[in-house]
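Listing 4. Sequential folding, example run.
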Amino acid sequence: MATRRSVHPKLFTDLPHFFRRLSSSVPPFTSAAQQAYFALEFDSLNFSERRTTTQFYSIVNLNDTKKLFASVPTKKLIKSTATLALCSKSYMVTLGTHVMNSKLMENRISKGIVLGVIKHTFYDHFCGGENLKEADLTVKRLAKSGLKAMLDYGLEHAVDEASCDSNLEEFLRTIESAKTATSDSPISYIVVKITAICPPSLLERVSDLLRWEYKTKSLNLPWKLDCLPIFADSSPFYHTLTEPNPLTFEEERSLEKAYKRLIKICENSLEADIPLLIDAEDTSIQPAIDYFAYTAAIRYRRETGPLVFNTMQAYRIDAEERLEMARKAAEERGMILGIKLVRGAYMSSERRLAESLGAISPIHDTATETHKCFNKCAALMLQAVADGSGSVVMATHNVVSGLDWIGLDCSS
C-alpha cells in the first residue's frame, strides 16, 4: 500500500505538528485547519471472485520493484527515497520543531524559504494535491497503474458547531467529487473523522459516560442508540475515575446534531455507492468514535457489504478481544462487520498519559507484540470475509504482513 496526502495550504501555519508526528505514521497536521490525504491500495484481492494465492501474487508481486515503480520517474524515486530516509531520523523531528518555533518563521523571507523546502520535499511526497481538482488528477494517474484511492479530506478537531457544519459541507463535496470522478471511479473509500463533525470536548464527555456505564452496568444513558460492543474488560478505564455528570440539555442537542451530520454523510455515501472508513483517535475519545461508527453501521447495514467501516488499532492490548466481541455481535444481528485494521498512531502519548496516572499502558510493550496482534486480527477478519460475515481494509506498510494475508511463507 502506498500513501498520498493532500493538505490545505493554510496548514503551513501549523507546521511544528508536522515534525513532531512524522515518525508516527499518522497524518502530520493536527490543528483545526483542513487537511486531506489519499491512502492508495491495490484493488486486486476480490474475495467475491475467490482468486487463488497464485493468481493474486501474479498481479501484485511485492518483490518485483521494477514493475511496481515502473510508472514513477527515476528522479521522483530518488527524491522520495531521500525524503523517507530523512523522516526516519529522530534528529530531523527535533531540528524541524526547533526551526518552526524559531525566529526564522517571523521573517517573511526566511519563512518563505523554509516553507518552500518543506513543500518540495515532505509535502510533495505525502500529499496528492492542494485541492480536489489536483487530487483527482493524482488519483486518475495512479489508477493507470492499477491503484485505487481512499479519499480523506481530513477536517480534524472542530472547535464549535459552526466549524462542524462547515466541515460537513467539505465532506459532502468530497463525496460528490469521488462520485463524479469517472463512471468507473478509482476511489474505493471515503475517510471520515468524527472529530471534524463533533467537538472533541463532547467526545470526551460521551466517552466518559460510556466507560462508566460499562464499569457499573447500571448507568442510564437516555441518548444512547443501539450499538455494537465498544469495551472489553482489558480496555483502559483510567480516563474516568469518578462518575461523570449526565450530559446537559445543550450537550445532548450538540450530540444529536453531530449524529445527524454523520447520517447526512452516510446518506450521500450510500447514494454514491462509496463506503466510509471512520478514522481512529486516542483512547480518551475513541469510545465515542466507536459509538458513532457502530450505530451508523447498524443503521446502514447492507447485504452487499458494509457502508460504514470502523477502525481497530492493533497496538492496543484490548484490540483482539474488542474485535471478536464486535464481530460476534454483528453476526447475531445478521450484519456484515466492516473493519479497517491499523497498527496505531498515538503510542508515545498514550504511554505518557497512563504513566502519569499510575496506570498500565494500553499499548503493547513491543513492536513484535503489536505485529502479532495485527496479524491475529487480520486472520480473524479474513475468516469473517471467507464466511460472509465481515469485510476488512488492512492498512499497513509492513510487507511481511501483506504476504502473510495472501498465504505466502514469509519465514525464509
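-- end of first protein; second protein begins --
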Amino acid sequence: MMAMELDGPAAEVTQPYSRSPRLTKRIIAAGGKQAKEVLSRRLQELTEEQAKAQAHLQSLKKRNADLMSSAEAMKLQVGEQFDGMRRALLADERAALEAVEQERQEAGTRLDELQRAWKRHLGQVQKDIGSTRQALEKSEAAQDCSWDLSCPKKSVAEEDIKMNNDKFQKLIKILGNILDNLKADLHRKTFLLDSLTVQVDKQTCHKQILVGAAGRRLCFSTEARPVLELPLQFEKVYCALGTPGVSAGRRYWEVDVRCCPAWAVGATYKNIERKGQEKAAKLGRNGHSWCVELREGSLSAWHGDRRVVCRGGGVEPPQRVGVLVDHTKGRLAFYDARTVRLLHEFSAALAPVCDRLQPQFSEPLFPAFRFFKADSSQPGPNYMEVCHYGL
C-alpha cells in the first residue's frame, strides 16, 4: 500500500470520507496545513452546533414558560367558574335560610301576640284571686271583683302557629336531588372532556334502520326498505356501526334510548360479521364485541357470548347510556349517563389471568347499536339517538 502524502496537493484531492473520525485523527496527528483546515472546519461545525443547541434550549425554555403561563391561565378560568358556582350556592343558601327565618319570625310574632293575651288573662285571674281572698277574710263580697274567667279569644287555632314543616321537607328533598344531580354532573364533566362526536355509518345499517338527516338518530322500521344491498351492511341482525373508531387514548359518547323498548349499545371491532344471524354477527355474542342490552325489562352486559346482569338490578333502566373507552388501558365501561351510575365494566385488569397476556383491545373500537324486533302489542316510537353535547 502506498504511503499517503499528507501535505501535498494529492492529499487535498483524495479525501473520500472527510467526516471519518479515523481519518480526521490521522490528519490532526500529522499536523500541517490540512490539519489546521480540518480543525477549523470542526471548530466551525461545533460552534454552529453550539448555537443550534443554545437556540433550541432557549426555545424549550420559552415553551416551558408558555406552558406555565397557559396552565396558570387555565387554572384561573377554572377557578373563576367554581367561584361563580360557589357564589351562586352561597346566594341560594342565604335565600333559603332567610325564608326559614322569615317563617320563624311570622310564627313567632303570632305566638308573641297569643302570649301577651294570656298574660293579660293571667293578670286578671290573679287580681280576682286577691279580691276573692279579701272578700273571704272580710266575709263580704268584693265590690271590684270582675269574676271574668273567660279565656282570651283565639284569632287562630294555637296548633296552626308553627313552622310550615311540609314546605321545608320539600325544600330538603329538592336540595337533596340538586346535590345528587350536581355530584353526577361534576363526575360526568370528566367524561365530557373526552367526548367523541359519533355519526352513524349508513353503509353498515340494516335495511330496516333509518338514519336521520343529522346522522345521529337511528329509527327502526317494521318494514324492510327496497334499498341496494351494501357489502358492509348487516344482513339479518338489526345492527349499525358508528364512526370514528377509537384506536388510542380515552373517549366517551352517550346514546339516548328512552324511546326504544329493547336495545343494545356497545363497541366492536370493524371486522364483526355482517352477513347471516349467527353469533359472529351479534353484539356481545363473540370475542370482538362488547355491549349492554335491555330486553324484557332486564339489563345485562355481554361479551364472548357470556351474560352478566348489570349492577342495580331493581333500579329503573337508564334513559341515556354513557360509553367510556380507554383503549390504552384496555377498559370499556357503561354508565347511566344521568346519574353516572356504573352499569358494567369490561377491563383487562378484571379479566382472568389467562386472558391478561395480551391487551384487552388489539384493534380500533367502533360504536355499535342494535335493535330487537318490536313487540306488536306495544306500539309506539322505536328509535335511539347519539347525543350531541354542544361543547
